[in-house]
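help with this.
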Amino acid sequence: MPRIRKKTSKRGTTNQRQKIKKKVSESHRKSKKAARKDKAAGNVHKKSKKDPGIPNDFPYKDQILAEAAQQRREAAEERQRRKEEKRALLGDVSSRPADADALEEDPADAEVLDGVMSLRAAPNVSAVNTTNILEAPMDVTPALPVLPGPPSLREVLNAADVVLHVLDARDPASSLSEILLESVSAKKVALVLNKADTIPQESLSNWLGYLRLKYTVFPVRSASGLLPTDPIPQPFNKKSPKPKIDDAIGLAPIWEMFDAVCSGLSRDELTVALVGVTNSGKSSLMNSLVKAMAVPIYSSASSALARRPHTTCTAQEVVTEIPGSGAKRVKLIDTPGLMFLHAESDQSEREKVRAKDLLLRCRGKLDRLKDPLFCVEHVMALANAQDLMLSYNLPAFTQGDPNALLASMAKVHGLVKKGGVLDHAGAARILLRDWSTGKLVRYTLPTDGPRSNVADVKDEIVNMLSTKKHLRKAGKLIRMTTGPTDTRQVIMDEEWEEESSEEDGGEEEGEEDDDKNGVRVDGEDGDDDEGMSGDEEAAAAEAEEESDSAPEVTAPPAKRKKTVSFAAGSGDSHRRKGGSAGGRKRR
């Protein structure tokens, strides 16, 4: 076969040359047109002169370069020193690896969002750099001595003269324990509606009129320095005002009650127990009462860097004086969150209780659950469908149908997997993220029943709240059906255990799965608190398993070697083709 002559010329065709010339001329034309427009608009771009550097014939060039290198080293050391100081101030962050300056991506998101594409282009969001993050220091009075309290809930209740049951004002009935109140019926009991500033004026007035028929109720807003902040911490600015911890609202009636009860005692010290479910704000209430950072609270800004949010694990005591009462003192005992016994029930009932506990008491990244759909089903069963449509600008869907809700949210947010399949899990995470960060403002109203006259409610905080009309215009406002009162048995005799801080291979042992005292799945409120039931332990373990466990990589099976039998000659191959026994098959 004749050889094909190799092409020696690199000359292009006339068509290619003309095409290039046309593109160049078109590019020049567009650039000249843009320059004319900029000149007419007064936008004159001056070319910045490039630094030529130090000439080679300059006699002191080596000295100047050495001084510049020294300045760079000193600047790098100063940056590292400031970084270490900020990590030490943030607390428990110095133990993180060196690459912890940026927020870590959870493996759960990488797995769930695999193959998800958007219907429209999304803006490029750079990673959050936390090297310049520092929370503003609080204007804290000298810290009060904090002493360890009784080892169990029953001992706390036996020692208390007054029991403050702290409730979440957004859904007081769900955070109310009737069993606990019955066990302390012989003592002075009062309910504290914490986080009262997060609900509309009408909701708080109705709940006060409903609960005050049976109990003494105090609506409270914790100090502004203890309120939740932006989940993404901002750089600290020295000119920004310092957070206050002495401006809580609604504490004056509580102090008056303390003074009245203490006057009837034979001693000058009153013992008060703060009890309630996790995330109801017991520690923030104690700090607001003593006007100092006596006990640590959960901060959503610092939790972005810390290994885990802080919750109270054991009882803690703080003694302070009652304002304006002379020598009378009060001992405040902050307790972990209530833990409940599990009643035997079917699978569906356990799922409902588990979802309720997670949504009411959880903290941390609630949207990082491996299976968030069961939580959305619980939200859908209680939320008003029309409010969800207006808040998320969704098309109409059937009340109580979570699949229709998630499909609508996936379309609106452009969450579509390969093949046009809507990503329900991604839509569920958006809803749960808004729930945990507080963007989804929710409120409840008491069930139909006798209540006092709402017009008689004249608390200070009620007049400061916004109405439903104003809150609905400002953002997402969802009316929820109030949940049932918790009737599970409270664990009172089990002793609280101190949280272990040992690490195993860089991971905290039992960080979220073996802990009995708190749910660590993301949180929205600086009003922290503690304690969890067994259903919450299972959910926390599920969330931890999703973020920590890596899929096991198995080696692919070895491929079977193929053997080929070669014919001895053309005649033998002809015989094999005809079916004769000219060659042996190899196995």
Summary: Residues 347-493+512-548 form one domain. The chain has a mean pLDDT of 74.
